[in-house]
Amino acid sequence: MKRFAFILIVIASSIVSCRHEEGLPSYQRGVYHWKTTYNPTEWEKEWMKEHRVGRLYVKLFDVVAGENANEPDWKMVPVATTVFKQKLPADMDVVPVVYITVDAIRALEMNEWGWSESTSLYAKLLVKRIDAMMADHYDGTVREVQLDCDWTEQTEAHFFRFAQSVKALLHQRNITLSGTLRLHQLREVENPVRNHWGSADSIPFDRSLLMCYNTGRLQDYATKNAILDFADVEPYLKQYHLDSLPRTDVAYPVYGWGVEFDVRGVFQRLVHSSQLAEARKTLQRNVKFREEWGEPQQIQKVQNALPDLDTLHTVILYHLDSLNLSRYSHEDIETFYSR
Q: Are strands 28-33 and 55-65 parallel, antiparallel or unpaired?
């Protein structure tokens, strides 16, 4: 028996060594797709192959309050559903993502125990819609579903209860639930004992995704870079501890935009990256125009400041768009995926 166990250990060690020799990372490499039409270009497909991206996070739809969608009889309504011009790649691990607005969470009527019939109903409807869309557009096996919500201290309890209902349904089929976590939300969950349900297991995710982007005040004239500035991130990483969270993945920004202010420094508009060239040509005198990108130096500073993550974590880049990705070198992308 001891000899048999020794042989197994040697075999396992050999497998691990081979994986390292092949240059395969022990963690996952992922990328978000956040467009309303799924129709990746050949360049984007080759980019994923070149960088060995194995996980594709695809936003399927948004969820808003019924009143916001002119459906007052419904608490939650799906909108902005992604149109699929191509099938999702069966050889990749595809994670469906749903963005839920704070207004939609507020619309759920809950009693003093944080429960209502509508919570269970809309959790079932959400999972059913995800199932239907993935069955139509993906021939692989769904192993994880992700919820994205910019919940606040006031809506935390309702969102957590809703997410727990979703998780219970997914666990019946051995599907993991992950959830996004913005920096400002760390103060609410860094100590799991301090929450509305009174126990450490009340955080509703199997995995948390720390979003290291959109960290600054976009409409503030004095902001240097609202997409990512290490000066905005550092205080959170020093004050809060990720070891109190479920297993944590991390996402970095590979996109840009322009922010326009008038002569008084009052925010005027956000200019998407596809419109930057034209916006530069038409700028009026005395107008401040702040062009922002996920800068490699800032991303690397965040990487170096993050605590050790488990070896099975996923590094995700936001998002799959050749116009933005082509601005970064091969070496930049490989560095982003390095931890």
A: parallel
